[in-house]
Amino acid sequence: MTNLSRHSPAFLAAISDEEIFHHHPANFSQNQTLQAKSHAKDAFLSLPLVTQTALLKQQRIVCIANNPSISTTTLDRLLKPTDIVVLFNHFIHADFFTDHDCAKLLPKLLFFRQIGSSNLHFGMPPRSNHVNHIETMQSQAPVGMMFANIPYQFPTPNDDPRPSDDPITKFRQLSVPAAMKSAIMSQNHCRVLPETHAVVSDYPIFSHIHSSAPTSGFLLYRLLLAARYHVKQEKKAANLMTMIMLGFNDEDKTGYFWEGHNWQFERFELANPPAGVKRINQY
Known about the structure:
Elements: H1 9-14, H2 20-23, H3 30-45, H4 49-57, E1 60-64, H5 72-78, E2 83-88, H6 94-99, E3 108-112, H7 131-140, E4 143-148, H8 178-184, E5 190-193, H9 216-235, E6 242-246, H10 263-271, E7 277-280
Helix pairs in contact: 3-9
């Protein structure tokens, strides 16, 4: 179990991950149990409606890191028709998720992180993006989208405070088409997720670093850990949904780590996953 205070919102939201209600109900008061259920429900309701529906139908959550070591062969072997796929920012292997016989039919949750305190999000115009692929995904299966901190602002290149970070090429889509814009404006398909959500209230940020916060992967990891307990209650299932974390390694071999994320805290937790969570390293 992670080192959370028994009275913190994060603990109560993540309580289900130890399956304590199933195995050790006597260890927790009725009030703690009710609070845990409430926090789990709040986490679930933070998700787009199409994602809520998919979680109640599917059997596994598969979070896929933007790890270049992940191959399409690995994805082909891993993914099943009963999965929901979680992708982040300018996600890897976009063609695979629109063309592969199984992957293209899977419900998907796409998360886009705010870039500092700007009006931009990673993975969306005018930054490098897979807008064309997302449009195709939306025609093939349910797709939920989440934006960190603020709603998507439909920014232009002139709104980019650091355009040299992501140079514009002829292949880059600079605006969002009408159908996708409609989905972004819909609560059924899109929600805003603050990086200060209760599921990460115990996260040790660095106060001296502007925009210090959990990584995209860790934020969604905590949110879905909590949400799956509510799914268990709604489905009256014997067990929590299985959660796969592909490519979320617990070491520092990758070339770049932004200093505003608390990597030590995240690696420790991911190295000690709760019941029902499987982490698959990729190198």
